[in-house]
């Protein structure tokens, strides 16, 4: 979800009048759904530095600095459960990112939310070589907002790498308790300015993702890229690589799938397409998941992308879903709205049942990557499935 552009993003979110953020006496505690795969999950955060290029968003910086997280099948036990958001990032989210959603400062204990993943747990070697999936959030969104999907993929035997795009993501916490916030938006946000800004972010993200994929390749060759867990060097399988993203992250996933020969398949979670991929499409397997009102007729870039794409392709529409339904907000906001009055729930995550929506997203994303990265047959894309009555296959 684009938090910086939430009231302005073209063909992504409706313009909504968000009520004044409500306060509560005791902070609400929220939780994420447990993953459904057979393996426990481990995670580790890693700082990466690309010294081959200056920072594309702050040109005075001579290198590009990123934070990523690795999510993977782990041996049972291990370290403490990882927080959903690191401490400084959670505090900044509370101050700056939650209030535009009608959630007052201190109303939710964001720092108290835990994932099921264990910090630094050893890799489960019984999972074999791990197919790799890169994940990118929406414009302005931190990498943590895809945890619900990412943990589930990791529990099914994937190495998922989530990426924060520094100076664009609302907040990025680096080692040493250093927080980097997003650059301020231009004073005048016309449609033309927004289009140029998204294109600039998309270009920076594409270079970021290719660099991150380079670093995963270093791991695949048996070398380290920092304090990675036991068993990680040599674990990634670079012959099986996917790209996954929400909103702008989905557009970049498509561009990466088109441009980078290492990427075999991609998924777009309800994002409009930015840049040349909108007109040129992709030739490799690709899937897009759509909110109820997001169609090829309402979004011109979807129509042109679909016509130009020549590989295996599927579009799935989720009844009752909104743009934010394809983020962790689908699981978290209903818990908040039940305790905090005035949160415009439908504007951000629609009217879909949260549990069913999450289960369907997990099932279809996992089946897609299982099919195209593992060669595992599925009938899920042949028509409607009674287990997921709110999901429609769009011809």
Rg result: 19 Å
Q: Look at the structure and give the CATH class.
A: Alpha Beta
Main sheet properties: 11 strands, mixed
Give the class from helix and strand content and strand pairing. Answer: alpha/beta
Beta fraction: 15-25%
**Mean of residue pLDDT values:** 94
Distance between the termini: 26 Å
Low-confidence stretches: 6-19
CATH architecture: 3-Layer(aba) Sandwich
User: How many structural domains can be distinguished in the coordinates?
Assistant: 1
Q: What is the overall number of helices?
A: 9
Detailed description of the structure:
This protein is an alpha/beta fold. It has helices at 87-97, 147-155, 191-220, 248-259, 277-280, 300-308, 329-337, 345-349, 354-374; strands spanning 41-50, 64-73, 81-83, 114-119, 130-136, 159-164, 171-174, 178-181, 236-246, 265-269, 286-290, 313-318, 391-394. Strands 3-4-1-2-6-5-9-10-11-12-13 form an 11-stranded mixed sheet, with helices on both faces. A two-stranded antiparallel ribbon has the order 7-8. The two termini are 26 Å apart. The relative contact order is 0.15. Residues 6-19 have low confidence and may be disordered.
């Amino acid at each position: 979800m684009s938090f910086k552009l939430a009231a302005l993003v073209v063909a992504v979110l409706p313009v909504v009048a968000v009520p004044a953020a409500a306060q509560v006496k005791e902070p609400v505690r929220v939780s994420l759904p447990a993953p459904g795969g057979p393996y426990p999950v481990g995670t580790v955060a890693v700082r990466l530095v690309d010294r081959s290029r200056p920072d594309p968003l702050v040109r005075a910086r001579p290198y590009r600095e990123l934070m990523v997280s690795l999510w993977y099948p782990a041996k049972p036990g291990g370290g403490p459960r990882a927080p959903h958001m690191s401490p400084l990032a959670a505090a900044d989210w509370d101050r700056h990112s939650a209030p535009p959603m009608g959630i007052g400062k201190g109303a939710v204990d964001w720092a108290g939310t835990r994932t099921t993943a264990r910090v630094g747990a050893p890799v489960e070697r019984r999972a074999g070589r791990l197919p790799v999936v890169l994940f990118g959030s929406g414009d302005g969104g931190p990498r943590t907002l895809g945890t619900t999907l990412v943990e589930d993929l990791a529990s099914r035997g994937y190495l998922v790498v989530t990426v924060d795009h520094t100076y664009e993501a609302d907040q990025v916490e680096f080692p040493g308790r250093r927080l980097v916030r997003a650059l301020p938006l231009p004073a005048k946000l016309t449609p033309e300015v927004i289009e140029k800004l998204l294109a600039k972010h998309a270009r920076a993200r594409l270079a970021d993702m290719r660099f991150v994929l380079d670093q995963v390749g270093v791991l695949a060759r048996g070398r380290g890229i920092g304090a990675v867990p036991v068993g990680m060097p040599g674990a990634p399988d670079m012959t099986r690589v996917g790209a996954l993203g929400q909103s702008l992250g989905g557009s970049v996933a498509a561009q990466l799938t088109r441009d980078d020969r290492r990427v075999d398949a991609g998924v777009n979670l309800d994002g409009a397409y930015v840049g040349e991929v909108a007109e040129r499409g992709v030739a490799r397997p690709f899937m897009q998941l759509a909110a109820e009102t997001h169609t090829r007729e309402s979004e011109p870039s979807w129509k042109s992308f679909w016509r130009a794409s020549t590989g295996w392709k599927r579009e799935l529409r989720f009844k009752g879903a909104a743009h934010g339904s394809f983020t962790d907000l689908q699981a978290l906001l209903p818990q908040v709205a039940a305790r905090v009055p005035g949160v415009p729930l439908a504007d951000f995550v629609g009217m879909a049942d949260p549990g069913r929506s999450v289960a369907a997203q997990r099932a279809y994303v996992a089946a897609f990557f299982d099919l195209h990265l593992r060669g595992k047959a599925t009938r899920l894309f042949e028509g409607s499935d009674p287990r997921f009555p709110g999901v429609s296959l769009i011809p």
